[in-house]
Amino acid sequence: MATGLRHRHQNKQLVPSGGRPHIESDDLLIDILSRLPVKTLIQFRCVCKSWRALISDSHLVTMHLRRFNRRRRLLFSVAPFQSIDISALNDAVCSVSSTSLDLPIPVGALKFVGSCNGLICLLENSSSVIFWNPSTRVTRTLLMPNHSHVGIVMFYGFGYDSTIDDYKVVFGCRGERNGALATTVVMFQLKKGSWRTIDGLDYVNLNGQGCLSNGALHWVEMKWDAGVTIRPVLSARIMCFDLAEETFQELIPLSYLSREYISARIGIAENSLFVYIYNSSEITMWVMRESWTKVMQIPTEIPQLPIGYCYSFSTPICILENGEVLMNSNGNYLVLYSPNGGACVNVLETPVDLAPEPAMYVESLVSPF
Q1: Could you tell me if 339 and 327 are in contact, meaning their C-beta atoms sit under 8 angstroms apart?
Q2: Taking a C-beta distance cutoff of 8 angstroms, is the pair 183, 136 a contact?
Q3: Dihedrals φ, ψ of 40, to 5°?
Q4: Cα angle for residues 133, 77, 108 (degrees, 5° grid)
Q5: Nearest to residue 288, comparing CAs of 224, 333, 240?
Q6: What is the DSSP string of 197-235?
Q7: Cβ contacts of 244 within 8 Å, gap of 6 or more
């Protein structure tokens, strides 16, 4: 599709004559435009109809995304929306400033479902789904289907299926069917524009937001000893939902978990999965490279932390290129922890509550339509 659109624009005069250079092919212009920020390209769309068509061309959108896909931003709150530049934290020596974003439609209570290629998926009041590109300010809203017959929504995610060039939002439900526990997935495809239900899946006990990596959504599934008050962990594994195959797979069992660990979650570190695990004294982090590698242990009590910090209530968000860990501490602080020497730096204090599952996104021209 991208090739066809590209050829359609070949040999068109996109720059007016009269003292200005005449461009026979738009290849050079596409290459130049793909290096510019979205804000500039949005302004350039007003130059003329041919420029507007070119900047909306899927070939340019894809090229622009490839150039900007490492310039990540973190959307860390929803009331109001606030974001910071992740790349700036690699060299940060002091606090960074945040940018306010406005969702151009009135909304109620929101939670992040996921983020992919500059699109952010939000769930509003468990009744509406919003697809939003914060760079272009384009939104698309749809009502959730009536899924009361399949169970309660317990896990969710959003990602891109490269086999059909489409985006999928996934809501996982658990319930009983014919006297047995069952898992059902309710899915929406952006291009297809319709909901459908996937039955007959293996039962999985997943919760919260799935972590997108390599075309699949990932969760940590844990089993506890139900026979005691303080339930130790019996086993844990990483489960993934392949967006193309639309099936669950066990990626790997987490055999290094001991019975004392109380919580485990998964995230992304420079396009690699990482798992962080809590116990009473530390947060242990493992990164999937060629195999699972333990990269650091963060103590839950750090003497040099200012009053008000408590690592027992800290959540790792991402691992930066320089090896430092960005963490949500106490719901109102963003802090950087350095494994070299154990230093901790406060990079942002905000009066608004940080989202428990913040969204990482990139600047892009991708449209929710």
Answers
A1: no
A2: no
A3: -70, -40
A4: 75
A5: 240
A6: EEEEEPP----EEPEEETTEEEEEEEEE-TTSSS--EEE
A7: 161, 162, 163, 164, 215
Q: Of all helices (H) and strands (E), which one includes residue 181?
A: strand 180-189
150 neighbors 175 (Cβ within 8 angstroms): yes
Whether the CB-CB separation of 60 and 365 falls below 8 Å is answered with yes
Distances in Å between the Cα of 71 and the Cα atoms of 97, 141, 274, 323 are: 16, 27, 20, 17
With a CB cutoff of 8 Å and minimum separation 6, the contacts of 303 are none
The pairing of beta strand 152-161 with beta strand 208-209: parallel
CB 362 within 8 A of CB 69: yes
State the CB neighbour count (10 A cutoff) for residue 12: 14
Give the DSSP letter of residue 49. Answer: H
Read off the pTM: 0.82
Residue 177, class by beta-carbon neighbours within 10 Å (0-12 exposed, 13-18 middle, 19+ buried)? middle
Using DSSP's 3-state secondary structure scheme, residue 368 falls into coil
Token couple for 94 = 């002091």
Answer whether 343's CB lies under 8 Å from 73's CB: no
Task: Work out whether strand 292-299 and strand 282-288 pair parallel, antiparallel, or are unpaired.
Answer: antiparallel
CB-CB contact of 210 with 114 (8 Å): yes
Cis preceding linkage at 80, omega within 30 = yes
What does the pLDDT profile of the chain (369 residues) look like in tens digits? 443 433 333 333 333 333 334 444 578 888 888 899 999 999 988 888 888 888 888 889 999 999 888 788 988 888 788 888 887 786 655 567 788 888 877 777 888 999 999 999 999 887 889 999 999 999 999 988 876 555 678 899 999 999 999 999 999 988 777 777 888 899 999 998 889 998 878 888 888 899 998 899 999 887 766 655 555 666 778 888 999 999 998 877 776 555 555 566 777 766 678 888 776 677 888 888 777 778 888 876 654 444 444 444 577 888 888 888 888 876 678 888 888 877 777 888 777 777 878 888 999 999 998
